[in-house]
Amino acid sequence: MARYESSSTTLGALQRGLGRGVFGDPSAPVAVLGDLSAAVAVFRDDYRWDGVDERAVYLARLVRDFDLPVPSLIPFEQNLGALSVLGRCGVLPAVDALHEYVCSGPRWVEVLETLASDWPVEMWDDLRPVALARLTPGVKLWGEPWKYWGLAAPLIRPVRRPLADRTTEELLTLLSDDAVRELNRRGPHPALLDVADSLSRMPSRLSSLYRSLELLGARAVPFARSWVAQPDHPLRGGAVDVLARHGDESDLSIIVAEWDRLDDLPDFRCGYDTLAAGVARIGARAAVPRLRKLWYSPHSYERAAYLRALNVLDPVVAGPFLAEGLWDCESSVRLLAVEHATASQLGRLASLRDDPMETASVRAAAASRISSV
Protein backbone atom coordinates (compact mmCIF):
# COMPACT_ATOMS: atom_id res chain seq x y z
CA MET A 1 0.00 0.00 0.00
CA ALA A 2 1.44 3.36 -1.05
CA ARG A 3 2.10 5.97 1.61
CA TYR A 4 0.09 9.14 1.11
CA GLU A 5 1.33 12.54 2.13
CA SER A 6 -1.10 15.09 3.54
CA SER A 7 -3.55 16.35 0.94
CA SER A 8 -2.53 19.89 1.95
CA THR A 9 0.86 19.32 0.31
CA THR A 10 1.52 19.38 -3.42
CA LEU A 11 2.72 15.78 -3.42
CA GLY A 12 -0.26 14.59 -1.37
CA ALA A 13 -2.70 16.29 -3.73
CA LEU A 14 -0.95 14.85 -6.78
CA GLN A 15 -0.98 11.37 -5.25
CA ARG A 16 -4.76 11.63 -4.93
CA GLY A 17 -5.28 13.13 -8.38
CA LEU A 18 -6.84 16.29 -6.94
CA GLY A 19 -7.17 19.46 -8.96
CA ARG A 20 -5.40 21.43 -6.24
CA GLY A 21 -2.27 19.43 -7.01
CA VAL A 22 -1.97 21.45 -10.20
CA PHE A 23 -3.73 24.71 -9.33
CA GLY A 24 -3.37 26.69 -6.14
CA ASP A 25 -6.55 28.59 -6.97
CA PRO A 26 -9.17 26.37 -8.67
CA SER A 27 -10.60 29.38 -10.50
CA ALA A 28 -7.23 30.45 -11.93
CA PRO A 29 -6.89 30.23 -15.72
CA VAL A 30 -3.19 29.30 -15.71
CA ALA A 31 -1.09 26.62 -14.04
CA VAL A 32 0.64 27.56 -10.79
CA LEU A 33 2.24 24.28 -9.73
CA GLY A 34 5.24 25.30 -7.67
CA ASP A 35 6.81 22.01 -6.63
CA LEU A 36 8.05 20.31 -9.78
CA SER A 37 9.93 17.74 -7.72
CA ALA A 38 6.60 16.52 -6.35
CA ALA A 39 5.25 16.23 -9.88
CA VAL A 40 8.22 14.10 -10.89
CA ALA A 41 7.94 11.98 -7.74
CA VAL A 42 4.32 11.05 -8.41
CA PHE A 43 5.44 8.97 -11.40
CA ARG A 44 7.75 6.78 -9.30
CA ASP A 45 5.00 4.82 -7.58
CA ASP A 46 1.42 3.83 -8.39
CA TYR A 47 -0.65 5.89 -5.96
CA ARG A 48 -4.01 4.68 -7.16
CA TRP A 49 -5.83 3.01 -4.29
CA ASP A 50 -7.49 0.67 -6.77
CA GLY A 51 -6.92 -0.20 -10.40
CA VAL A 52 -10.20 1.48 -11.41
CA ASP A 53 -8.93 4.89 -10.26
CA GLU A 54 -8.11 7.11 -13.24
CA ARG A 55 -4.73 8.81 -13.55
CA ALA A 56 -3.76 8.59 -17.23
CA VAL A 57 -5.02 11.97 -18.47
CA TYR A 58 -4.09 13.71 -15.21
CA LEU A 59 -0.48 12.51 -15.33
CA ALA A 60 -0.14 13.07 -19.07
CA ARG A 61 -1.20 16.68 -18.57
CA LEU A 62 1.43 17.10 -15.87
CA VAL A 63 4.11 16.03 -18.33
CA ARG A 64 2.83 18.29 -21.09
CA ASP A 65 1.87 21.38 -19.09
CA PHE A 66 5.00 21.50 -16.95
CA ASP A 67 7.49 20.17 -19.48
CA LEU A 68 8.40 17.18 -17.32
CA PRO A 69 10.50 14.26 -18.55
CA VAL A 70 8.47 11.52 -20.21
CA PRO A 71 8.20 8.82 -17.51
CA SER A 72 9.37 5.24 -17.82
CA LEU A 73 7.04 2.24 -17.75
CA ILE A 74 7.71 1.72 -14.04
CA PRO A 75 5.30 1.53 -12.27
CA PHE A 76 3.79 -0.30 -15.21
CA GLU A 77 0.01 0.01 -14.88
CA GLN A 78 -0.07 3.68 -13.88
CA ASN A 79 2.48 5.05 -16.30
CA LEU A 80 1.31 2.96 -19.25
CA GLY A 81 -1.93 4.92 -19.30
CA ALA A 82 -0.15 8.27 -19.13
CA LEU A 83 2.34 7.31 -21.83
CA SER A 84 -0.48 6.10 -24.06
CA VAL A 85 -2.27 9.45 -23.76
CA LEU A 86 0.96 11.33 -24.46
CA GLY A 87 1.69 9.17 -27.47
CA ARG A 88 -1.81 9.55 -28.89
CA CYS A 89 -1.32 13.31 -28.71
CA GLY A 90 1.93 13.16 -30.66
CA VAL A 91 4.59 13.33 -27.93
CA LEU A 92 7.34 11.51 -29.82
CA PRO A 93 9.42 10.33 -26.83
CA ALA A 94 6.31 8.56 -25.52
CA VAL A 95 5.59 7.01 -28.92
CA ASP A 96 9.17 5.81 -29.22
CA ALA A 97 9.24 4.41 -25.68
CA LEU A 98 6.06 2.40 -26.21
CA HIS A 99 7.09 1.11 -29.63
CA GLU A 100 10.44 0.05 -28.18
CA TYR A 101 8.70 -1.74 -25.33
CA VAL A 102 6.51 -3.69 -27.73
CA CYS A 103 9.69 -4.78 -29.49
CA SER A 104 11.56 -5.93 -26.38
CA GLY A 105 9.56 -5.53 -23.15
CA PRO A 106 8.24 -8.50 -21.13
CA ARG A 107 4.63 -7.27 -20.92
CA TRP A 108 4.49 -6.22 -24.53
CA VAL A 109 1.06 -7.75 -25.22
CA GLU A 110 -0.57 -5.51 -22.60
CA VAL A 111 1.16 -2.46 -24.03
CA LEU A 112 0.18 -3.30 -27.59
CA GLU A 113 -3.45 -3.93 -26.64
CA THR A 114 -3.51 -0.61 -24.78
CA LEU A 115 -2.19 1.23 -27.82
CA ALA A 116 -4.71 -0.50 -30.08
CA SER A 117 -7.57 0.61 -27.82
CA ASP A 118 -6.34 4.21 -27.48
CA TRP A 119 -4.47 5.14 -30.65
CA PRO A 120 -5.64 5.39 -34.26
CA VAL A 121 -4.79 2.34 -36.36
CA GLU A 122 -2.05 4.05 -38.33
CA MET A 123 -0.06 4.59 -35.12
CA TRP A 124 0.21 0.89 -34.24
CA ASP A 125 -0.41 -1.08 -37.44
CA ASP A 126 3.31 -1.10 -38.28
CA LEU A 127 3.94 -3.20 -35.15
CA ARG A 128 2.35 -6.27 -36.75
CA PRO A 129 5.65 -7.90 -37.85
CA VAL A 130 7.07 -7.45 -34.35
CA ALA A 131 3.97 -8.97 -32.78
CA LEU A 132 4.01 -11.95 -35.15
CA ALA A 133 7.65 -12.61 -34.32
CA ARG A 134 7.07 -12.43 -30.57
CA LEU A 135 3.80 -14.33 -30.26
CA THR A 136 3.93 -17.65 -28.44
CA PRO A 137 2.33 -20.40 -30.56
CA GLY A 138 -1.06 -21.51 -29.28
CA VAL A 139 -1.76 -18.39 -27.20
CA LYS A 140 -5.37 -17.23 -27.63
CA LEU A 141 -5.89 -13.50 -28.01
CA TRP A 142 -9.06 -11.44 -28.42
CA GLY A 143 -9.93 -7.87 -29.31
CA GLU A 144 -7.57 -5.38 -30.89
CA PRO A 145 -5.11 -5.38 -32.51
CA TRP A 146 -5.58 -9.10 -33.05
CA LYS A 147 -9.02 -8.79 -34.59
CA TYR A 148 -7.86 -6.10 -37.02
CA TRP A 149 -4.90 -8.25 -38.00
CA GLY A 150 -7.02 -11.38 -38.41
CA LEU A 151 -5.27 -13.12 -35.51
CA ALA A 152 -8.05 -13.11 -32.93
CA ALA A 153 -9.28 -16.38 -31.46
CA PRO A 154 -12.90 -17.40 -32.16
CA LEU A 155 -15.47 -15.68 -30.02
CA ILE A 156 -16.34 -17.34 -26.73
CA ARG A 157 -19.66 -19.14 -26.84
CA PRO A 158 -22.63 -17.39 -25.17
CA VAL A 159 -23.18 -17.99 -21.47
CA ARG A 160 -24.80 -21.35 -20.92
CA ARG A 161 -28.37 -21.14 -19.59
CA PRO A 162 -29.30 -24.68 -18.52
CA LEU A 163 -32.65 -23.60 -17.07
CA ALA A 164 -33.79 -21.20 -19.77
CA ASP A 165 -36.73 -23.43 -20.69
CA ARG A 166 -38.14 -23.59 -17.14
CA THR A 167 -41.04 -21.41 -16.03
CA THR A 168 -40.59 -18.84 -13.28
CA GLU A 169 -42.68 -20.98 -10.93
CA GLU A 170 -40.45 -23.98 -11.59
CA LEU A 171 -37.34 -21.93 -10.94
CA LEU A 172 -38.70 -20.75 -7.60
CA THR A 173 -39.25 -24.38 -6.70
CA LEU A 174 -35.76 -25.45 -7.75
CA LEU A 175 -33.93 -22.51 -6.16
CA SER A 176 -30.53 -23.70 -7.28
CA ASP A 177 -27.77 -21.18 -7.96
CA ASP A 178 -28.49 -21.53 -11.68
CA ALA A 179 -32.15 -20.92 -10.94
CA VAL A 180 -31.46 -17.66 -9.10
CA ARG A 181 -29.27 -16.45 -11.95
CA GLU A 182 -31.95 -17.34 -14.48
CA LEU A 183 -34.54 -15.45 -12.44
CA ASN A 184 -32.29 -12.39 -12.38
CA ARG A 185 -32.00 -12.51 -16.16
CA ARG A 186 -35.79 -12.31 -16.40
CA GLY A 187 -36.12 -9.27 -14.15
CA PRO A 188 -37.34 -8.67 -10.59
CA HIS A 189 -39.45 -11.38 -8.94
CA PRO A 190 -40.96 -10.38 -5.56
CA ALA A 191 -41.65 -14.04 -4.71
CA LEU A 192 -37.90 -14.52 -4.36
CA LEU A 193 -37.92 -12.32 -1.25
CA ASP A 194 -39.95 -14.91 0.63
CA VAL A 195 -37.17 -17.47 0.29
CA ALA A 196 -34.12 -15.19 0.17
CA ASP A 197 -33.57 -15.58 3.91
CA SER A 198 -33.02 -19.31 3.67
CA LEU A 199 -31.08 -19.09 0.42
CA SER A 200 -28.63 -16.62 1.93
CA ARG A 201 -27.32 -19.32 4.27
CA MET A 202 -25.61 -20.85 1.23
CA PRO A 203 -22.54 -18.65 0.49
CA SER A 204 -22.37 -19.64 -3.17
CA ARG A 205 -25.68 -17.88 -3.81
CA LEU A 206 -24.93 -14.55 -2.14
CA SER A 207 -23.72 -12.73 -5.26
CA SER A 208 -26.82 -13.80 -7.19
CA LEU A 209 -29.06 -12.74 -4.32
CA TYR A 210 -27.39 -9.34 -4.09
CA ARG A 211 -28.22 -8.86 -7.75
CA SER A 212 -31.81 -9.94 -7.03
CA LEU A 213 -32.13 -7.29 -4.32
CA GLU A 214 -30.81 -4.66 -6.72
CA LEU A 215 -33.42 -5.64 -9.31
CA LEU A 216 -36.26 -5.68 -6.78
CA GLY A 217 -35.44 -2.16 -5.59
CA ALA A 218 -38.04 -0.56 -3.31
CA ARG A 219 -39.99 -3.81 -3.01
CA ALA A 220 -37.10 -5.23 -0.99
CA VAL A 221 -37.14 -2.43 1.62
CA PRO A 222 -39.32 -4.20 4.26
CA PHE A 223 -37.12 -7.30 4.06
CA ALA A 224 -33.94 -5.21 4.10
CA ARG A 225 -35.01 -3.51 7.32
CA SER A 226 -35.42 -6.91 8.92
CA TRP A 227 -32.02 -8.13 7.75
CA VAL A 228 -30.05 -5.07 8.86
CA ALA A 229 -31.43 -5.55 12.36
CA GLN A 230 -29.45 -8.81 12.46
CA PRO A 231 -25.72 -7.89 12.56
CA ASP A 232 -24.58 -11.30 11.30
CA HIS A 233 -27.19 -11.77 8.59
CA PRO A 234 -25.54 -12.81 5.29
CA LEU A 235 -27.61 -10.30 3.32
CA ARG A 236 -26.95 -7.36 5.63
CA GLY A 237 -24.55 -5.66 3.20
CA GLY A 238 -26.99 -5.88 0.33
CA ALA A 239 -29.79 -4.76 2.63
CA VAL A 240 -27.91 -1.58 3.56
CA ASP A 241 -27.51 -0.80 -0.13
CA VAL A 242 -31.25 -1.31 -0.65
CA LEU A 243 -32.03 1.16 2.15
CA ALA A 244 -29.51 3.68 0.83
CA ARG A 245 -31.12 3.52 -2.60
CA HIS A 246 -34.78 3.21 -1.65
CA GLY A 247 -35.25 3.78 2.09
CA ASP A 248 -36.48 6.91 3.84
CA GLU A 249 -35.45 9.11 6.75
CA SER A 250 -36.19 6.31 9.21
CA ASP A 251 -33.33 4.34 7.66
CA LEU A 252 -30.76 7.11 8.01
CA SER A 253 -29.30 5.72 11.23
CA ILE A 254 -28.54 2.44 9.43
CA ILE A 255 -26.77 4.28 6.61
CA VAL A 256 -24.73 6.34 9.07
CA ALA A 257 -23.84 3.24 11.08
CA GLU A 258 -22.55 1.56 7.92
CA TRP A 259 -20.57 4.70 7.14
CA ASP A 260 -19.00 4.52 10.60
CA ARG A 261 -18.22 0.83 10.09
CA LEU A 262 -16.34 1.60 6.89
CA ASP A 263 -14.46 4.40 8.65
CA ASP A 264 -13.27 1.91 11.27
CA LEU A 265 -11.79 -0.47 8.69
CA PRO A 266 -8.05 0.23 8.30
CA ASP A 267 -7.05 1.30 4.78
CA PHE A 268 -10.52 0.52 3.43
CA ARG A 269 -11.89 3.27 1.19
CA CYS A 270 -14.53 1.56 -0.96
CA GLY A 271 -18.33 1.47 -0.67
CA TYR A 272 -19.11 5.03 0.36
CA ASP A 273 -20.57 5.99 -3.02
CA THR A 274 -23.92 4.26 -2.47
CA LEU A 275 -24.14 5.66 1.06
CA ALA A 276 -23.36 9.17 -0.22
CA ALA A 277 -26.13 8.92 -2.79
CA GLY A 278 -28.46 7.71 -0.05
CA VAL A 279 -27.87 10.59 2.36
CA ALA A 280 -28.29 13.04 -0.52
CA ARG A 281 -31.56 11.47 -1.63
CA ILE A 282 -32.92 11.52 1.92
CA GLY A 283 -31.71 15.10 2.42
CA ALA A 284 -29.40 14.54 5.39
CA ARG A 285 -27.46 17.82 5.50
CA ALA A 286 -25.64 16.61 8.60
CA ALA A 287 -23.62 14.39 6.26
CA VAL A 288 -21.92 17.37 4.59
CA PRO A 289 -18.77 17.20 6.78
CA ARG A 290 -18.46 13.49 6.01
CA LEU A 291 -18.66 14.17 2.28
CA ARG A 292 -16.07 16.93 2.47
CA LYS A 293 -13.70 14.55 4.22
CA LEU A 294 -14.18 11.88 1.54
CA TRP A 295 -13.13 14.33 -1.16
CA TYR A 296 -9.52 13.73 -0.12
CA SER A 297 -9.66 9.94 -0.42
CA PRO A 298 -7.05 8.44 -2.77
CA HIS A 299 -9.82 6.13 -4.05
CA SER A 300 -10.79 8.67 -6.68
CA TYR A 301 -13.18 6.34 -8.53
CA GLU A 302 -15.98 7.22 -6.08
CA ARG A 303 -15.20 10.95 -5.96
CA ALA A 304 -17.94 11.98 -8.39
CA ALA A 305 -20.55 10.35 -6.14
CA TYR A 306 -19.31 12.39 -3.17
CA LEU A 307 -19.34 15.61 -5.18
CA ARG A 308 -22.81 14.94 -6.57
CA ALA A 309 -24.17 14.29 -3.08
CA LEU A 310 -22.46 17.37 -1.66
CA ASN A 311 -23.94 19.54 -4.39
CA VAL A 312 -27.44 18.23 -3.63
CA LEU A 313 -27.13 18.83 0.10
CA ASP A 314 -25.25 22.15 0.10
CA PRO A 315 -24.51 23.80 -3.26
CA VAL A 316 -22.63 26.65 -1.59
CA VAL A 317 -20.20 24.29 0.12
CA ALA A 318 -19.93 22.25 -3.08
CA GLY A 319 -18.99 25.29 -5.18
CA PRO A 320 -15.21 25.29 -4.54
CA PHE A 321 -15.06 21.52 -4.97
CA LEU A 322 -16.87 21.77 -8.30
CA ALA A 323 -14.37 24.41 -9.39
CA GLU A 324 -11.47 22.20 -8.37
CA GLY A 325 -13.12 19.27 -10.11
CA LEU A 326 -12.44 20.87 -13.49
CA TRP A 327 -8.84 19.65 -13.04
CA ASP A 328 -9.57 16.35 -11.30
CA CYS A 329 -8.05 13.03 -12.35
CA GLU A 330 -11.46 11.37 -12.78
CA SER A 331 -13.33 12.07 -16.01
CA SER A 332 -16.64 11.61 -14.15
CA VAL A 333 -15.67 14.41 -11.76
CA ARG A 334 -14.57 16.69 -14.60
CA LEU A 335 -17.84 15.98 -16.40
CA LEU A 336 -19.91 16.86 -13.32
CA ALA A 337 -17.84 20.00 -12.75
CA VAL A 338 -18.29 21.06 -16.38
CA GLU A 339 -22.06 20.65 -16.11
CA HIS A 340 -22.09 23.13 -13.19
CA ALA A 341 -19.39 25.51 -14.43
CA THR A 342 -20.06 29.24 -14.30
CA ALA A 343 -19.24 32.07 -16.69
CA SER A 344 -16.10 32.81 -14.67
CA GLN A 345 -14.72 29.43 -15.74
CA LEU A 346 -15.11 29.86 -19.49
CA GLY A 347 -11.34 29.76 -19.93
CA ARG A 348 -11.06 26.34 -18.35
CA LEU A 349 -14.08 25.09 -20.29
CA ALA A 350 -12.45 26.17 -23.53
CA SER A 351 -9.26 24.36 -22.54
CA LEU A 352 -11.17 21.16 -21.87
CA ARG A 353 -13.11 21.48 -25.11
CA ASP A 354 -9.94 21.86 -27.17
CA ASP A 355 -7.64 19.46 -25.30
CA PRO A 356 -6.86 16.33 -27.36
CA MET A 357 -5.95 14.54 -24.13
CA GLU A 358 -9.47 14.97 -22.76
CA THR A 359 -12.18 12.33 -23.11
CA ALA A 360 -14.79 12.79 -25.82
CA SER A 361 -17.65 13.09 -23.32
CA VAL A 362 -15.97 15.86 -21.31
CA ARG A 363 -14.97 17.76 -24.46
CA ALA A 364 -18.54 17.61 -25.76
CA ALA A 365 -19.96 18.69 -22.39
CA ALA A 366 -17.53 21.60 -22.22
CA ALA A 367 -18.57 22.78 -25.67
CA SER A 368 -22.22 22.56 -24.70
CA ARG A 369 -21.68 24.40 -21.42
CA ILE A 370 -19.80 27.23 -23.13
CA SER A 371 -22.81 27.90 -25.32
CA SER A 372 -25.22 27.97 -22.37
CA VAL A 373 -23.50 30.05 -19.66
From TrEMBL:
<protein>
    <submittedName>
        <fullName>Uncharacterized protein</fullName>
    </submittedName>
</protein>
<dbReference type="InterPro" id="IPR016024">
    <property type="entry name" value="ARM-type_fold"/>
</dbReference>
<dbReference type="InterPro" id="IPR011989">
    <property type="entry name" value="ARM-like"/>
</dbReference>
